[in-house]
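Internal tracking record. Fields below are filled automatically when a chain is submitted to the structure queue. Please do not edit lines marked as system-generated. If the sequence contains nonstandard residues, flag them in the REMARKS field before resubmitting.
Queue: standard
Priority: normal
Entity type: single polypeptide chain
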Amino acid sequence: MKTLTKIALGAVMVVMANCWSATAQNALEDPRYGATPEERKTNLGNLNWLSDEVNARNWDAAAVYVRSLMKAAPSAHSSIYLHGATVYRNKIQRATSVADKNALIDTLMMVYDQRVQYFGDHPTQGKAYILALKARDYLNFNPLDGANVRKYYKEAVDAAGSAAKPDLLLLYFQQMVNGYKAVEVTPEELLTVYETLTPLMASASQEEKDGLTTLLATSGAADCGVLEELYTKELAAKPGDLELLKKAFQLMSMANCDGDFYISVAEQLYKLEPTSNIAIRLATLFEKKQEFEKAIPYLNEQIQSETDPSAKSDLYVRISASELGQRRYSAAAQAARQAISLNPNNGFAHMFLGNAYLGGQAGCSDFNRSAVSWLAYDEFARAREALAGDTSGALESVNSLMAGCRANFPSNEDIFMYGHSIGASYSVSCGWISGSTTVRAR
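SYSTEM-GENERATED OUTPUT FOLLOWS
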């Protein structure tokens, strides 16, 4: 067995030697290694010595061979530049002065540029690949030179085009955001680059796409005024474009926009692609503007798709509030009752139902008007119990409403005059307002 192993190893060595001999012979006849046989032999030897010095981590000695080969045989072999980048990265890390470091960085950049010149047409590690390495190295070694960092990343992205990888695009945009924060990049420049990179992210994961959008949204550059100016022009050029509307809506939502243009974008998008997110956003915007009649249809549409009883109850509460805002007290009471039927512990539903009763109280006459205050008071009492742990300030409102109701209770004399007694049960019946309550005096 040992003899067989020795024979096999010997055969391998012979094959390797023959291969090396053939490679060396080819190099000695290849004009890329030099104009004359002597030059080719010298450069081939230097290439071998370069590999040896890199393996031995003798960076200064290796650098001599890199410079010689880049000058004498720049197109001989890509390993000149692969080794060259390794050599100068290590020399930069060991530089003892800023001047030396900067000079070495310049040389490293030249190594990449010359590699592009002579090997930029490589099918997998060509120009785009090389420029991406160049940009990353420059960022690592000279991150404070933002202008050149952005320049090198732009060159890499431009070279890659539609084949650009998401991590490269995100790194480039991060540098643009850094430039904006350093007041070296204008908001318009940042948004222009964002618009350029977005289609290049088409094949990226959702997380990566969101990462690009988040970088812009958190940069501070995407304020509502800038976004409105940008998307007004773009939507004028591409009216009704679904993807453009989605992008505008997403960015303007992240910027907390609430103007008419943003509402218009949301409405257009909702017509093309209705979603819960857009419906709720539109309802909220109209509620904020007190355009309640416009908010209610979106809330009703959301109710149709909502399956969680508690969430549906909250939607009915919002409808009740919107109806109250329009002084449509009967409709407000109806929505509040639906909210209570879904969640009896919804304190806001009880509070709005009490408010609806008070709003409709004016239509009642004589003793019934006072009786409605009892009915409303009961709802406020239920609201106070349900909101016991609330910290939003709603409890203060409820207590104030209860105090207002008590002030409107009839006097003892009025109760006696109408033939009732304190603590007795009383059925209210006044138009759409009805219910059972308890007789109380103020």
